[in-house]
Amino acid sequence: MSFLSEFREFALKGNVMDLAVGVIIGGAFGKIIDSLVKHVIMPIVGLAGGSPDFSKISAGPVQIGSFIQTCVDFAILAFCIFLMVKAMNTARKRFEKPAAPATPPPPPPSEVYLKEIRDALVKK
């Protein structure tokens, strides 16, 4: 098998394509959540507790504010994603059709033969 055909087989596998779609959708979804945090949630935090921009905080010559801002953004982002996943799971459970009850497996042939013999003996 040539190098090119091996690469084509690898690149066109379903898992690779699913991963590519997941990464692209995840990147777009990340932008939505980032915008939610920056433009909706942080201004509300700013109204409740002062300036929403922690990046100006410093400890002497060390500028630790950007790190604090990133940590706050991450915590809010993780919480928002948690709420969205929880809502999706709840909706999925609500709209899923209940599974059909499983039919019992047929009895083994020996059991069928024994029942037939029993019924024949009872009739005599």
Detailed description of the structure:
The protein is an all-alpha fold and 124 residues long. It has one domain: Orthogonal Bundle (Non-ribosomal Peptide Synthetase Peptidyl Carrier Protein, Chain A). The protein is 73% helix and 0% strand. The protein has four helices and no strands. Helix 2 packs across helix 3. The longest helix is centred in the N-terminal third of the chain and has 36 residues. The relative contact order is 0.05. The mean pLDDT is 80.
Topology, element by element:
Blueprint: H1 3-11, H2 14-49, H3 65-95, H4 109-123
Reported by name, the CATH topology is: Non-ribosomal Peptide Synthetase Peptidyl Carrier Protein, Chain A
Q: Tell me, rounded to a whole number, the average pLDDT.
A: 80
- Under the CATH scheme, the architecture is Orthogonal Bundle
- Tell me, briefly, the overall form: elongated
